[in-house]
Amino acid sequence: MSLMDTDDFAAAVSEAGRVLRPGGRYCIAIVHPLAESGRFLEDGSFLVDRSYLQVWRYPDELHRQGIEMTFHTEHRPIESYARALEDAGLVIEALREPMPNLEMAADQPSEERWRRIPNFLMLRARKDR
Fold this sequence. Notes:
Layout (H helix, E strand, L loop, with lengths): L8 H11 L5 E7 L1 H4 L1 E3 L5 E3 L7 E9 L2 E9 L2 H10 L2 E7 L5 H6 L12 E8 L2
Antiparallel strand pairs: 1-7, 2-3, 4-5, 6-7
Helix pairs in contact: 1-3
């Protein structure tokens, strides 16, 4: 959950490809680029109000247990990650867009909306040679 916060993410992916042995796997989990591109409105609908296909930066401020953190995130479309993996000699073998389970949505009603729009993206890539 940090590749979207890495300035030179292509270099990071390239390094992973360099150090992996053939058959090795590289796993990525990021905030889904679609989720970054929009917001939920009061009526529960989702508005894409930023360009999904462009690269842009934004601050992501978190406040938890009295600690404040600011991540300087760079939005990238899924294709950017796929191209970086390809350029590093890696092949995507799995892609997942997990949704909250029903129990989580029941315990936290605000999570129900994420059963319609993907919040996270997980990729698993393999080095063949």
